[in-house]
Amino acid sequence: MILGRQFLRGDLLPDHHLPRPDGHGVRLPLSSSQREIWFAQLRNGNSAAYRIGEYLEIHGPVQARLLDAALRRAVAESEPLNVRFGTEAGVPWQQLDTVPDWEFPVIDVSHEPDPREAAECWMSENLRQPVDIEQGPLFSYALFRLTPHRSALYHSFHHIVIDATGGGLVMRRVAELYTAMVAGTPAPESSFGSLRLLLERDAAYQSSPERAADRAYWAERLVDRPDPARLGRPAPAEFPPVVLKASGQLAEAETLRLRAAARAAGVHWSITLIAATAAYTYRLTGARDVVLGLPVTARTDTALRALPGMLANVVPLRLQVSADTRVTDLLRQASREARQALRHQRYRCVDLVRDLRLPDAGRDFIGAQVNVMSFGYDFTFAGHPVTAHNLSNGIVDDLAVMAYDRSDGTGLRIDLNAPAGPYTDADLAGHHAGFMRLLDAFCDDSDPERTVGGADLLSARERSRVLIEWNDTAREVPDRTLVELLAAQAASSPDRVALIADQGDQRLTYAELHTAAHRLARLLAARGAAPGQCVAVALPRCPDLVVTLLAVLFTGAAYLPLDPEQPAERLGQMLTDAAPALVVSRSDVTAADALAPSGHAPWLLLDSHPAADHSGPPGPRSGTPTAAPAARPEDPAYLIYTSGSTGTPKGVLVPHRAIVNRLLWMQDTYHLTGRDRVLQKTSIGFDVSVWELFWPLISGAALVLARPGGHRDPDYLARVIPEQGITTLHFVPSVLDAFLAAPGAARCPGLRQVFSSGEALPRATAERFHALLPQAALHNLYGPTEAAVDVTHHQCVPGDPGPVPIGRPVWNTRLYVLDAALRPCAPGMPGELYLAGVQLACGYHGRPALTADRFPTDPFGHLFGAPGSRMYRTGDLARWLPDGSVEYLGRTDDQVKLRGVRIELGEVETALRALPGIAQAAATVVDEQLIGYVTRSATDGAPPGGLDLTEVRGRLALVLPEPMVPSDIVVLDTLPTQAGGKLNRKALPALRPLPTAAGAHPPSDTHEARLAGLFGEILGIDDVSGDADFFRLGGHSLLATRLMARIREVFGTELPIRTLFEAPTVAQLAKHLRSPEQAPARTGRAAAGAFAPWDRLDPLLSLRAEGSGPPLFCVHPGSGLGGAYAGLLRHLGPSRPVHALQARGLSAPSEAAPASVEEMAADYVRRIRTVRPSGPYHLLGWSFGGLVAHAMATRLQTEGEDVGVLAVLDAYPDNRRILSHRTELTEQQWLLLLDGIDGLNGIDSLNGIDSLNGIDGIDGLRGRDGRLPEDTGDGLRAASAPPADAAAGTGALMAALRRMGLPAQLFQDASASPLLDVTRHNVTLLSRFTPQVFRGDLLLFTADEPVPGHSADPAHTPRSWQPHVDGTVHVNGVPAQHFHLLHPRPLARIGPVLADALTTAEHVLEAQK
Question: In this protein, which residues make up the domain named Carrier (predicted)?
Fold first, then answer.
């Protein structure tokens, strides 16, 4: 691209042009401003980020050699450019050292298609190159020939040596020297001050009274500073290397208008830019207390103004602004603030950060910057004028308004710079357009009363688009009630199945359902249910629930859903607030026992009234109306409570008209038919349950009720969806993630549409969904309880980039994205989301003030024929996308959503403060966990000693729903506060100690060992101790459900999830499992599959006996034990039976051991045929077991059976190299070996006992001359200890192994240990075995991490299997070492691959039949 390039060098010039600076070779300290950049560069590690640059467009011909001479002389005169940097003992220094020879390329780009673009491309690339500040040079120059009569002089510097003001001084001097050289006249002497002067003045200031006064001013001005108002997304941890830019130019006439308006207000024109930036920040963030950054030269006198070095600083400007602030008042306020700041501009910003003790080097201190670059470029190069073009100003933290006043008659250039990451090019372009409109409004001085909120930031076209076009959702909807919709469907399909309960498989037709509901409605009406009243319903998910909800609606009353799983105290608060006419429940509901005596309202227990029994004799036909006044469309249909910031939940009343619009829109858009089945799994306390319950019942589809608690169990959902033929269901995104991770998620072919709402849907989750369920559509919905469930919709498309939008408005609904002045935001600009239209709730029950605050008058209602109507303020940040859909950006307040649950942090904090012993409380979300922070109370009522955190969580569980109970409670001396005394919520996460899985107490028995394994499996961690706390390790309510499901599967005991909140550690929870009076009896499916895998030594151990698919048979490793395979169960799905083969010698040590691997394989084939008489057979083996599985597969094939999957975990056919070095170990050495031997790695390691220090199993035994390596560790060397010590060590080892939970008979004594005998014997068999050829493919999992201290056997490669397999060896690497392959994390990689292979093999075999 570059044409005609040459370099000019200093050796072409006479020496008198290169005066050496005074003090050459002397090491000097850094100035305070230089130290800032030095340490910032060390911290950020990107020296290119601190380069600044621009180019001067010279309008006229240039003599390159004279310009080169002028440049070199000006550089030589500028002492700060002639330094290099270094450190000594960690202290930086700089040394004056003239750079005599540096490149000055002259590049001809005049023949390029776009010369300017070619030149700027070169410059940008140069600016991206890091500069070594210890070598230099710390500047770059280049000259570009754009045309014969136009050139571009590029100059850039490292910010540590010069600032923009200094760069302007150098360029002015270059022009002066060049002009003199062209004219042939002597140039005036340089007026530059010396570097020594700069340093002396800086040092003098640091110890001066002036600095003390400056510090006092800033301390007072910022004592109660606010958080900075940011216009972009959260900043990344590191400065992004790319700075984005949006440019604009005010013509000279517009610039004169700006200056005139400023003069009329009595301020400088730059103040108008500052005030406009503060106003723009307020409009888009709502921040009334705005802190801006003002870059300043920090040159406060004539001597400093002649210094070309680095002195620049940034000072904060603090302004108060609101929608009704007059523009003239804001201008005057900004002028006063700027004058004060300039008086104190030498006090370094970094010192302010230190004084205020700000974290992260003060990056979160100042918001947008206003950089007024009013450097005069009115000089010429030998009479040729110049135009300056800025390229880089170095680091940009946030939005920066850059104003360039070149005083050259071209007007004012205004750029917006911003870091990539928090901003995009589109964001910046939108901000630039909006800011320029606001600035234009500020320049209009025709109305002295104009206000900040009165300016419009949109063009007329944009305003019409966001208000009218994108809200064109009007649709004629019949003015009917939900009851009428339900009745119409029941009349049209009376004999169709309406309701199916998965638990018990109960079914009701539409006629039966409505008959039962009308019968119950008469009873309810007789008890006071009527329009204007509400009836509370406290029932689990069952047919009674659906019948009762319909019955309440048939009476004209609104229903109040009470989830029996919520704490009784919270339910009591709802009943007190709602004052229902009646509470409907059953005697077996725990909430009924707890609340009935409280006297909140009359109770009706369904199981105490024959008239309420829907299984009784038929009553009136479904179409027969209940003898009760009918509800009107404007009457409430339901009352649902949500979290309240004041500490108590608030009730939302939703009218029939709203929910009818919502349901009819959904039916018109997504089309349920009589062939569809909708799964109802959401708690009735959440509004998603409303459409789950009623959409199918107004559409002729079947409503399927998930079992109580089933919504928390991904494995259950993966099973019930295909079993019940579910076509439609809903997931909160976090639950969808868990469901997609379940082994059976991909086996739901009948699923055709899934709806997701409740929290932001990650794009990665959507892509995973499409990959696993390509036949199903995924729809992202959004809406608060205050607007009839959902108000926006978006269909996810595979491969779409960026965040998943919340979409477009539904029928008769409007979305407004408004700024703080309640004016519409332009597309792409963030604002608060407001909702309007027919779906709005009536308001908050019994709270008129809150209703008025959150449901203000709609200022745009008149545009839609609804003047005076209301809108709802969501508190959500959002922005319009170019296609008219909306993107969710976050919250404007302290409300959070976790796993779909709306949580007001204030309610959690109120509950914490109500506990004894707690004085102050705060809560926040850290890494998707709700964490509480408390301080101790000093009152006499506080309990002695420290807080019992388990008790605290247990007490909270009595008043808060499970998702609102903090996972961890951190005790602090004081809560962090901002300067003004407000809680500093952002500082809370750093105050939480990092939890660890390893604790002081290992699992003490079988129960604890197994529980620790389950903790690790669910949380994805290893080595869980007995005192490890599930929630502190990262557990939450969703993971807690999975843990309880695994406990039910492994222990056969059903524990309520609340037990985990009361007993969150391994040891505490184990007590509940040991205690018969505390743990419910084993019943149903859990009991049938209950086992303790480490307790049983059956040769054929059923890990999961039930299931419809062909079983997987897992062959034990060298230890002979198969219990470690239990970790596979969760990955293979509930329909896959799994059995483990264990060595016969463990349970029957007196029987003769097999004489060969082939004999062992034959025995095992006989055993698996007792479970499955004919194929296909699926086989899996780990280590030694992999070779036995291969032998079983070849034997089965000789017997004429099909083998579907043969899978091997890190086993290889050639073991001669290892086994040739096998030594005869002592009993103690073998015991130590069992610390890591195959099959025992799922249990805790031997604690407090020396181990083999890296020899973790059979494959680790290597040595020369039949001896173990010299570095095997102290544990093995103990074998050579005196006999007494060796015996003591052996006894301790055996005791530790017994504590693992293995049966005692395996460790009778050192001379009679079946486990040791089996292990020794299997090693012997392995040394004699050569595999035959298997006809088929081999699925091989390799352990890709080395066993510590041992190199891999070169014979152990996947290729070594090929002679023993006539198909393909499919290799899957696992990032783990051999002895950890059945740990939770490796199993998470192995399990899904194995599950897919099993399914594929069965399809292939079926197709071959």
Answer: 1002-1077
Q: Output DSSP code: residue 807.
A: B
Assigned token pair, 839: 């779906």
pLDDT digits (tens, 9 = 90+) for 624-668: 555 557 899 999 999 999 887 666 889 999 999 999 999 999 999
| DSSP helix/strand/coil, 1082 | coil
Q: What Å distances lie between residue 309 and 202, 344, 750, CA to CA?
A: 12, 20, 72
Helix locations, 493-509, DSSP H? none
Identify the helix (H) or strand (E) that includes residue 871.
strand 871-880
Report CA-CA distances (Å) from 1320 to 569, 1026, 1234: 61, 32, 11
- Chain mean pLDDT for the chain: 82
Q: Output the pLDDT for position 270.
A: 93
Query: Does the CA dihedral 896-897-898-901 come out positive or negative?
Result: positive
* 189/742 Cα distance (integer angstroms): 80
Spatial CB neighbours of 64, under 8 Å, sequence gap ≥ 6: 8, 106, 143
Separation between Cα atoms, residue 2 and residue 122, nearest integer Å: 9
Name every residue whose Cβ is closer than 8 Å to that of residue 171 and which is 6 or more positions away in sequence: 56, 153, 155, 377
Token pair, residue 80, equals 């700060």
Tokens for 477? Answer: 């909807």
Encode pLDDT of 953-971 as tens digits: 778 877 787 778 887 888 8
Distance, in Å, from the CA atom of 1097 to the CA atom of 1119, rounded to the nearest integer, reads: 12
Tens of pLDDT along 1023-1072?
788 878 887 777 776 677 778 778 877 777 777 766 787 788 888 888 88
Q: Over the range 1352-1368, which residues count as b (16 or more CB within 10 Å of their CB) and which as e?
A: ebeebebeebeebbeee
pLDDT digits (tens, 9 = 90+) for 919-945: 778 888 876 778 888 888 765 454 444
Residue 642 φ/ψ, nearest 5 degrees:
-125, 170
Give the other-Cβ count within 10 Å of 1138's Cβ: 22
Residue 956 tokens read as: 């909270």
CA 538 – CA 547 distance, rounded (Å): 13
Query: Which pLDDT does position 40 carry in this prediction?
Result: 76
Q: Does residue 1157 contact residue 1170 with C-beta atoms inside 8 Å?
A: no
Q: Residues near 1075 by Cβ (< 8 Å), separated by ≥ 6?
A: none
Token pair listed for 243? 């700075």
**Non-local CB neighbours of 1280 within 8 Å, separated by 6+ positions:** none
Lowest mean pLDDT of 56-60, 228-232, 1051-1055, 1110-1114, name the range: 1051-1055
Rounded CA separation 1200/885 (Å): 61
The predicted pLDDT at position 465 comes to: 94
**In order of start, what are the domains of the chain with their CATH numbers?**
3-200 (3.30.559.10), 220-375+394-455 (3.30.559.30), 482-492+505-664+682-695 (3.40.50.12780), 812-893 (2.30.38.10), 896-991 (3.30.300.30), 995-1038+1064-1090 (1.10.1200.10), 1091-1404 (3.40.50.1820)
The yes-or-no verdict on residue 776 having pLDDT over 50 is yes
If phi > 0 it is left, if psi is from -120 to 50 it is alpha, else beta; for residue 313 that is beta
Angstrom CA distances, 654 to 469, 658, 752, 1251, stand at 27, 7, 30, 66
Strand duo 792-795 + 777-782: pairing? antiparallel
The answer for residues whose C-beta is within 8 angstroms of residue 249's C-beta and 6 or more apart is 410, 411, 412, 413, 414
Q: Which residues contact 799 (CB under 8 A, 6 or more apart)?
A: 767
CB within 8 Å of 1398: residues ≥ 6 apart: 1109, 1110, 1112, 1132, 1136, 1178, 1204, 1205
- Distance (Å, rounded) from C-alpha 1196 to C-alpha 1333? 12
List the beta strands (DSSP E) in 1296-1351: 1338-1343
Q: Which residue has the tokens 């540096």?
A: 102
